[in-house]
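Bumping with the actual sequence this time:
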Amino acid sequence: MAHIESRKRPVAHSIGLAHSIGLGGTLMAGLLAPAVHAADDADVAELSKVSVEASQKPGYKADSLSTKFTAPVKDTPQTMQIIGAGLLHDQQAATLTDALRNSPGVGTFYAGENGNSTTGDAVRMRGFDSSGSIYVDGVRDMGSVSRDTFNTEQIEVVKGAAGSDYGRTSPSGSINLMTKQAFLGSALGGTVSVGTDEQKRATLDANQSMGDNSAARLNLMVQKSGVAGRDEIENKRWGIAPSVAFGLDTDTRVYLNYQHVQQRNIPDGHVPTVGLSGYSSPDESVPEWDDAPKVDSENFYGTHDDHDDVDMDMATVIVEHNFSGETLLRNVTRWGKTDQEYALSAFMSRSFTTASGDPATLDNLDEWEIRRLVNTKDQTNTIVTNQTALVTSLYTGDVKHTLSAGLELTREKLETDGVTGAADDVNLYNPDDSADITLTRTGAGSEGKTTTKAVYLFDTVEIGESWLLSGGVRYDTYRTEFESTAVCGGRRGPDCAGAPEGTVLPSVDADTDGNLFSWKLGAMYRFSNGLNTYVNYALAQQPPGGSNMQLSNSERSADNSDYDPQESRTTEIGAKWTTADDRLLLTAAVYRTKVSNEVEQDESDGTYHQNGEKRVQGIELSAVGAITDNWDISAGFTTMKATVEEGSADAQDGSDNLTYNPEKAFTSWTSYQFSALTIGGGLRYVDGLKRGTDGSVGTPEETAGYTVVDLMAGYDISSDLGLQLNVYNLFDREYIASINKSGYRYTPGAPRSAMLALNWQF
């Protein structure tokens, strides 16, 4: 079965959209999809349309992928997961971070370093930072921001080396969001939800045909919400995403898409680690601080001036043409821009004093004060890209080839402006947010640019009924240029060299270029009972500045322009089994990823070299789909033994474990439909985390694992109206969700909360 991306033939996952917005009536399901499975001997244009009744329960299983993949999920020899609109709807998952909780071992486990806090979707996967490997419709989406799911059809999570798919990438995988598109048909639906912690959110999804072959679609979102268990934190945003399509149900189709999201948030500076299990005094001269009581996890240590202001714009033109039922030409042109202005009055609790300046003691807890630092960011990310892909099927004798070839031209740019800030000290146990912060533009800044030209070729070879051979190669030519200035003097500024302190001087002026050759090769054997077994090997690379377009002069930084690209090699052996009339997909895999060219310090002379190596290995199990007509499930379990193979210890406790990586994780969600009533819920387990090495104390060396239970109940009042109640962290479990390396802070897990939604449709 060929796997050609086109919107001329319906596919199953469009049902999830009908469920997610509760659309009544009949939908032309496949016109929503970004992919098509072309029949061996059938012309796509001759296929009949598929109608989907709104009363049908959508499934969690989806097989269709983007054009980078030449086979459906069950025939692709790699660990991957599709998080569809139906699952997002059942969980009321509003952000990418929320959605990724459905993928075991993927999460925001790292809260920053040295008093700085991470922002946005700071995702880690299989032991490594994957924040720079987030894509929208196959196009890289840079920026340290939180992504909303209101315009997302499905999320593709691919684990292991993904260099042949996207070029420079994280060692452990990639995340691709597929956006919603206009389709033939008339549909109008939406959701209005309210919840604890002043949560308020509304979405609208409207689609309308315009003649026989054109359609328009509009997705809207507005939200103003607090954060469960946290004082003063606020997520305030709105978004609009229009889509217009021409030539639907013809050989040539054009899609014009735009998305704008504005966020005006109050960021979270997290909570001091004082009083946590494993906490120790940051000052050896005052050991009694070891016994200081735990602070209230709801405390907000920022000021009323703290802000995280984001404007995201994305304009996309997609042109598709079917030369025949087996050949699709697809071109994507994208311009995207993300502006972020950020100020956070964080804290560094390395010492405690009183208002009078005296050392704090246990008998005067009401007077304990800590220093507040102001973390700032004024950053703009832009991207311009043109991507052309040709997907076709052909025969060489009795052997069938499904080919995907492409050319990609991309220009990415990062601009930052230097901003400094100051804030007053704050009481540790009774913080006050009324103080002002002073922000000053320094005149310093930076600019980074990366230009990439890439070609790729993928092929899935079907040999008889049983054997599949899959392979792909990609060749990237890249150039990164980076310039920065900095204020001289101070802790981290350059030497003033006779200039007055505070003078803006050149800091880094570096560039790097090269070629990246990435590839993957897999073989699969298909048994007649639906069981597929496979083996896969893949290579990916990440050059200096590859994740953020910033280069460094520091020998200890992997972004030093003189260093070679980081290399990751993944080996995977697994099985995929479809059962329950092809509605349920069970997968199992054993994997190992080795990352080389890591920067390590030679203890004998203090110099740095690229001789380090890290490794992550384990197993991954999953079950996705329908057990019966009314019973759906999405579940996964993983082990991730991540270690330093060559180089110094990474963990504070002296072990060779990689930090901020849970060794075991389990996630699950299931739902059952009783006519008008739907009951669902899930259980998530995340193992403990180890903190990285540094010279500080206070932050515990490791955290404990935790288990969280969520529940959902939905009731269809009528064919046009339904109620849905979600309860999160049902048993109000206290836990640590992420931890800062040396900033003496952690992110508390969200306590019990609830959300009530009214879903409507016409």
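The tokens above came from a reply further down the thread. Residues 14-20 form the longest helix (7 residues).
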